[in-house]
Amino acid sequence: MRLSANQQRLVMNLWPTYRFAGIRIERIAPDWTEVDVRLRVRGLNRNAVGTAFGGSLFAMGDPFLMLMAMKQLGPEYVVWDKQAAIEFVRPGRGTVRGHFALGADDVDLMRKATADGDKHLPWFEDVLTDESGEVVARLRRQLYVRRKR
């Protein structure tokens, strides 16, 4: 069953991992080029010093880049998360937001880089911000992309 972007958003918002972490997917663009996510820092997702739990911040970026690539490239491609890292810049308080984008230029590059059957390992960087727009964390992810054999 193929879900629309909005249907996928609704299903993922019911997923226990996101629900209990306080993560909410606000929007998935119909063409899978953008995803907006938010985390309201509250009792169950606070760490020992009262700020956003690092695992919840890390989970905010997972698995959107991979899903956006899969949906845009189509079923003839294999896409996996290969590596990921997070740099905590400042304490997350209030509401933390993430905006993830994967544009046509990135997808075209993936298609060209894998046209002869080779794997492609692109890196992407995103930020999570607080209500004032200050960077809370920097996320760095690497995808594994290859045409199916």
User: What is the molecular shape?
Assistant: globular
CATH domain class? Alpha Beta
Largest sheet: 6 strands, antiparallel
Task: Give me the side-by-side strand order of the main sheet.
Answer: 1-2-4-5-6-3
The portion of residues assigned to helices is 25-40%
What average pLDDT do the residues reach? 96
- Name the structural class: alpha+beta
Question: What is the count of DSSP helices, taking H or I runs of 4+ residues?
Answer: 5
Order of helices and strands: HHEEHHEEHEE
Radius of gyration: 16 Å
CATH topology: Thiol Ester Dehydrase, Chain A
Oligomer: single chain
Low-pLDDT residue intervals, each spanning 5 or more residues: none
- Tell me the β content: 25-35%
Commentary on this structure:
The longest helix has 10 residues, at 5-14. The protein has a 6-stranded antiparallel β-sheet. The protein is built from 5 helices and 6 strands. It starts with a helix and ends with a strand. The model has no long low-confidence stretch (mean pLDDT 96). Strand 5 and strand 6 (135-147) form a beta hairpin. It has one domain (5-147): Hotdog Thioesterase (Thiol Ester Dehydrase, Chain A), CATH 3.10.129.10. It is globular. It has helices at residues 5-14, 16-21, 54-60, 64-73, 104-113, and strands at residues 23-28, 34-40, 77-88, 95-101, 123-129, 135-147. It is α+β, with helices and mostly antiparallel strands and 149 residues long.
What order do the helices and strands come in, and which of them pair?
Blueprint: H1 5-14, H2 16-21, E1 23-28, E2 34-40, H3 54-60, H4 64-73, E3 77-88, E4 95-101, H5 104-113, E5 123-129, E6 135-147
Antiparallel strand pairs: 1-2, 2-4, 3-6, 4-5, 5-6
